[in-house]
Amino acid sequence: MVRLTYHKFGAKRTEYEGVQYASKKEARYAQELDLRVRAGEVVFYLRQVPFHLPGGVVYRVDFAEFATNGEVHFVDVKGMRTKDYITKKKLVEALYPVTIEEV
Fold first, then answer.
1. What's the pLDDT score for residue 8?
2. Coil, strand or helix at 39
3. What is the DSSP letter of 55?
4. What ranges in the chain are assigned the alpha helix state H?
5. Distance between CA 86 and CA 49 in Å, rounded?
6. Nearest 5°: CA angle at 44, between 81 and 75?
7. Are 28 and 19 in contact (CB under 8 A)?
8. Interstrand relation of 72-76 and 100-102 (parallel, antiparallel or unpaired)
9. Among 63, 50, 64, 65, which residue's Cα sits nearest to residue 95?
């Protein structure tokens, strides 16, 4: 049986290079990161990086990018900023020495 799942905000799960992404926008960003790796701007990147929060809550940022200049960028690809997301983002930034960038 084929089961279609629909995201409550209309995002369509998309596959890129054999990996399932939560949205077309997130898959396009991964494709852009691959181009930046090939161009020598980014050394490598990680997907769905967990941050552990109080109460057993885990927040996963979409990408952690490791640039050739030594900088690390934490990036979330957002179509819609929910209250839950905003709260968790603020909590991560308060507990960890990181800034989460949104695209």
1. 55
2. coil
3. G
4. 24-38, 83-95
5. 17
6. 10
7. no
8. parallel
9. 50
Q: Sign of torsion, CA 82 88 89 94?
A: positive
Quote the tokens at residue 74: 């934490």
Q: Strand, helix or coil at 37?
A: helix
Of 78, 77, 72, 80, the residue nearest 99 (C-alpha) = 72
φ, ψ at 10 (rounded to 5°)? 85, 5
Which residues, 6 or more positions from 27, have their beta carbon under 8 angstroms from its beta carbon?
A: 14, 15, 16, 21
- Tokens for 5, please give them: 């799942």
Amino acid at 9: F
**Residue 82 vs residues 59, 85, 86, 88: alpha-carbon distances, Å:** 14, 5, 6, 10
- Ordered per-residue pLDDT tens for the chain, 103 residues: 333 355 556 678 889 999 899 899 999 999 999 999 999 999 999 999 999 999 999 999 999 999 999 999 999 999 889 999 999 999 999 999 999 999 9
